[in-house]
Design a protein that fits this description.
The protein has 326 residues and is mainly β. It has a domain of 209 residues: TolB, C-terminal domain (Neuraminidase), CATH 2.120.10. It has 3 helices and 16 strands. A 4-stranded antiparallel beta sheet has the order 6-7-8-9, with no helix packed on it. Strands 10-11-12-13 form a 4-stranded antiparallel beta sheet, with no helix packed on it. It has a 3-stranded antiparallel beta sheet with strand order 3-4-5, with no helix packed on it. It is globular and about 55 Å long.
C-alpha cells in the first residue's frame, strides 16, 4: 500500500451537532436534523444497541462549501505513524518500524535520526506518537512513545531527547516512563503523546487487546487502558485526580479506555478530546475529564470481532462516562 502525507489547507467540521447534546440515559433513535443530509453511514449497524442521547451516533452529514487543496509532499515514507510540526514548518515523523525522520514542507526526507532506542515493531507495536516541546525553539526537546521489549514482556514506553544542532540524531535520549505491567502480547498500545497547557504530558496507554489483560483498564493501580499525565521527567503531574489515594497510580488521569489513537487539546475551551478505537462498531470520541471512568470493557457500543457480545453487553452504567459520539 502506498504511503504518503497529505496536508489539507482548510478546517473541517467535527461532530458539531453531537457536541451540543447533553448526555442522558434516555434511549432514542437517530433522526437527521431537518434540512441536513442523511448520515454518511450507509451500512447496517454492527449491533442493535440504542444510543444514550440524540446525536450520539449516525449524526446527519454536513455539506461544506469551503474549498481546500491537497498536496502530496512525499510518498517515500514507510508506515508513518506520528507527526509533529516544528516551528519552522518542517515535520518530524515516526515510522512504525522504529525510525524518525525530518520532512520539509517541500517533501525532502532526511535519513533516519540516530540514537533512538530499539522498538518492538511486531503486531501493532513500533515507534508511535510524538510531540515537540512548546519551547522547542530554545531547548530542541522531542518526546515520543514506543513499544519496548523487556524480560517480562512488552510495555508502552515514553522517551525524550534533544534534536542535535546538526539534525542527524537525538542527544541524551532517556526513557522517562513505562506503562506497566509488561505483557507478552503485541497489540493495542495506543499511543499519543501531547503537552497540556501547564507543560506536562498526556500519554494514551492502550488496553493491550487480550481479554485477560484488558480488564486492567478498570484497575486504578495499573497503567493499562489509561490516559496518563506526567511531567517531562516522567513523574506524576501535580493536580492529578488520584494522587494520595491508596492502591491507585498517581500518574493516572482517566481510566476505562481501549485503544486511544487520538489526543488533542481544544484550542478554545482547553478540553482534552480523545479518539478511541473500539471493538466492532464501538469506536468513540470522548471529552476526557480528570478521574473519570470511560467504561471499557464493562460498557461499550461495540461487539467482539467474532460477533459475540462483550461482557454483559451493556452500554450504560452509573459512574461511567458516555462517549460524545460513537
Amino acid at each position: 500500500m502506498k504511503k504518503y502525507i497529505i496536508i489539507f489547507v482548510a478546517g473541517c467540521l467535527l461532530l458539531a451537532s453531537a457536541c451540543k447534546k447533553k448526555n442522558t440515559t434516555e434511549n432514542t433513535t437517530q433522526t437527521p436534523a431537518t434540512g441536513s443530509q442523511s448520515s454518511v453511514e450507509t451500512l447496517p449497524p454492527n449491533s442493535n444497541f440504542k444510543p444514550a442521547f440524540e446525536g450520539q451516533t449516525r449524526v446527519a452529514a454536513v455539506k461544506t462549501t469551503t474549498a481546500f487543496r491537497a498536496t502530496v509532499l512525499t510518498s517515500s515514507l514507510t508506515a508513518p505513524w506520528g507527526l509533529a510540526v516544528l516551528p519552522d514548518g518542517r515535520f518530524l515523523i515516526t515510522e512504525k518500524a522504529g525510525t524518525m525522520r525530518l520532512v520539509t514542507n517541500t517533501g525532502q526526507v532526511s535519513s533516519p535520526l540516530a540514537n533512538l532506542p530499539a522498538v518492538n515493531a511486531a503486531g501493532q507495536g513500533g515507534l508511535l506518537g510524538l510531540c515537540v516541546d512548546p519551547a522547542f525553539s530554545i531547548n530542541r526537546m522531542v518526546y515520543w512513545s514506543f513499544s519496548e521489549r523487556g524480560s517480562n514482556g512488552n510495555v508502552l514506553a515514553v522517551a525524550k531527547g534533544r534534536l542535535a544542532t546538526n539534525e542527524t540524531g537525538l542527544e541524551n535520549v532517556t526513557v522517562i516512563y513505562r506503562a506497566t505491567p509488561a505483557y507478552t502480547g503485541a497489540n493495542q498500545y495506543g499511543s499519543r503523546v501531547i503537552f497540556d497547557r501547564t507543560g506536562n504530558l498526556f500519554v494514551s496507554s492502550g488496553d493491550r487487546s487480550d481479554p485477560g489483560i484488558r480488564v486492567q483498564a478498570q484497575d486504578e493501580n495499573s497503567a493499562i487502558g489509561k490516559i496518563i499525565r506526567i511531567t517531562t521527567d516522567g513523574q506524576p503531574a501535580s493536580g492529578n485526580p488520584f494522587i494520595g489515594e491508596a492502591n491507585t497510580r498517581p500518574e493516572v488521569y482517566s481510566l476505562g479506555h481501549r485503544n486511544e489513537h487520538g489526543l488533542v487539546i481544544h484550542p478554545v475551551t482547553g478540553d482534552l478530546w480523545e479518539g478511541e478505537l473500539g471493538p466492532r462498531g464501538g469506536d468513540e470520541i470522548n471529552i476526557i475529564k480528570p478521574g473519570a471512568n470511560y467504561g471499557w470493557p464493562v460498557i461499550t457500543y461495540g461487539i467482539d470481532y467474532s460477533g459475540q457480545p462483550i461482557g454483559n453487553a451493556i452500554q450504560q452504567q452509573t459512574g461511567m462516562e458516555q462517549p460524545v459520539y460513537y
